[in-house]
Design goal:
Blueprint lengths: L3 E6 L2 E7 H11 L7 E4 L5 E2 L6 H7 L19 H8 L4 H15 L3 H20 L5 H10 L2 H8 L4 H11 L7
Antiparallel strand pairs: 1-2, 1-3, 3-4
Helix pairs in contact: 5-6, 5-8, 6-7, 7-8
């Protein structure tokens, strides 16, 4: 899955694109890149990227396991009957858990997508517009599903910030 990022220098949107595209843009900005805030468009949260050259990043990344697949070991806590059931499944616990997660992610409904859009718009708006006029009213409109009110209120914010908040929130209002 490709992550798309949006960069802001103060109230101005300066760039947007994939992580690699943003790396090129930020390197070209030189020292000025230090004041740029990057936001993940999927979550609305502020993020950072490593601006070192690929060879430098690769030499620092000593991954274990299956790096080509991006496999990460994490803890899962289940009841004994769950572990017993998983042990009886073809392929064992890991294969079965991956299949269950894949099936659940495919069955993700529009309500979940709307909720993710609201949460992304909220995270971005809180970071960039928390002091803007009627911020709280905008967040109430966002979570109440009142897209028209949200658009009207965010139109009073700095142009690029309001536009990006509306873009992130748009999937939440597709049922209006």
């Amino acid at each position: 899955m490709t992550t798309y990022l949006t960069a802001f220098d103060g109230e101005k949107r300066v760039a947007g694109g994939t992580e690699e595209e943003m790396r090129v843009v930020l390197r070209a900005m030189g020292p000025k890149a230090a004041q740029v805030l990057l936001f993940d468009d999927d979550t609305g949260r502020q993020t950072d990227i490593d601006l070192r050259e690929e060879a430098d990043r690769a030499s620092q990344a000593r991954m274990r396991g299956r790096p080509a697949l991006g496999v990460k070991a994490r803890e899962v806590t289940l009841l004994p009957r769950h572990w017993e059931w998983l042990a009886r499944q073809p392929g064992g616990a890991s294969v079965t858990l991956r299949k269950l997660v894949e099936a659940a992610s495919r069955a993700d409904d529009a309500g979940a997508a709307a909720r993710r859009a609201m949460d992304a718009a909220y995270a971005f708006s809180t970071a960039m517009a928390g002091n803007c006029p009627d911020y709280e009213e905008a967040m109430r409109a966002l979570y109440a599903g009142r897209g028209g009110d949200f658009a009207r209120i965010t139109a009073r914010w700095p142009a690029d910030i309001g536009e990006h908040a509306r873009t992130l929130a748009a999937p939440a209002f597709t049922t209006e």
